Amino acid sequence: MTQQAYLSREGHSVTREEKRVLAGTLVGTTIEWYDFFIYAQAAGFVLAVLYFEPLGAESETLAQIVAWASVGISFLFRPLGAVLAGWLGDQFGRKLVLFITLTGMGGATVLIGLLPTYAAWGLAAPILLIVLRIIQGLSAGGEWGGAALLAVEHAPRHKRGLFGMFPQIGVPLGMLLATGFMFGLNAVLTEEQFLEWGWRVPFLFSFVLILIAFFIRWKVEESPVFKEMKERKKESSAPLKELVTTHKKYTFLAALIFAANNAAGYLVIAFFAAYGAAELGMSRTETLIASLIGGVGWFIFTMLGGWISDRIGRVRTFQIGYAIIIVWAVPMWFLLDTASLPLFALAIFVLTIGLGPSYGPQSALYAEMFPVSIRFSGVSIGYALGSIIGGAFAATIAQAILDTTGQSWLIGVYIGGLAVMSFIAVSMVPKNLQGIDLQDDGEREELRLGDKQMVH
Fold first, then answer.
1. Contact at 8 Å (CB) between 20 and 220?
2. Quick one: what percent of the chain has pLDDT higher than 70?
3. Does 7 score more than 70 pLDDT?
4. pLDDT higher than threshold 80 for residue 316
5. Are β-strands 448-449 and 452-453 bridged in parallel, bridged antiparallel, or unpaired?
6. In whole angstroms, what is the distance from residue 387 CA to residue 442 CA?
7. For residue 211, what are the contacts with CB-CB under 8 A and spacing of at least 6?
């Protein structure tokens, strides 16, 4: 059967096992990103006061920049987490890694909710906070790759974008869950109550969510692609070495493809809400409502991006998404700066129209870029490096641009520049990779990438 036939074939009925896989990847990534996002939102609202108090005495702005930097520091450890998870995933399976990352992320989140503040423990408090963030970064470095491959490798060729969309929508759903929790607390608690204990509740609630994710993922079968690879005994004994020596180009491209989406995404997740409250004088409740509207848009357009990539192509879908971000990156600030809730929310919602197409097809695109023996390592490390280039310090850089220039629209120039870079990177991925056989790399050997083969 030809590649195009695979892409256009209809009539596939989703099996019970496939439904379990999609549910397992969706619920797991939603909860993991909920854990990650409640920290980012807490960094925008309370952590500067509670954990970086000495800096706040000198400069409130400096304390907030350090709080944003504590969000970014965990990204620096994602590549290490990706290397470890990639080796485990390529050797022992995708499912094992998902249990390990879930434990690390959930445990660190609960401990943050229990951690005493600087006023109680002094310097030990921010140090332990950073240590727990590092554990979260290590866990996040392996979570996405395992979930993405489990979904895509269970998918029929013509539905990889659709199946791979499920771990992707875990990001906006995690954001909605985290933001909804913060919104509810802000609505019922006083400022004093929120600062004293209310902000801890979402962190502690993670324990319940992790138990739910464990239960669902326990029933999911291992990836059929990985099981067939094990039967053929083709696993690489040193996937990282092979990745660096023969597939560094595509690892680098994967990082650049993700960078702009991750940077813009972290503005939606946390920076916009903090900016509206601290710089524009909007109430915290108003900015959280706008963030919720943005999360809904991100969810809708990520689903659309995954689905449509099976029809018009993953590269083209990404290009559409990044083109929208490039065009909107600067104008949106003039709506945000009105401090009007409808216009503030509209600016964020329009941005998500570009975020969705440049995120929904990512699982399928990355899976098709790497051979099976090193696929986990390739997608995880590419994703982790992209998050460092993009989202790790996006909020910190945005805050620094604002404090230095006083011109919010220059943050849009920064985001737009990243989007141009990511647009160029995704345009360099050969379109004929779509629909490639994920189990047998013989078809991959036959594809020419410009003036050389993709795999030697």
1. yes
2. 87
3. no
4. yes
5. antiparallel
6. 32
7. none
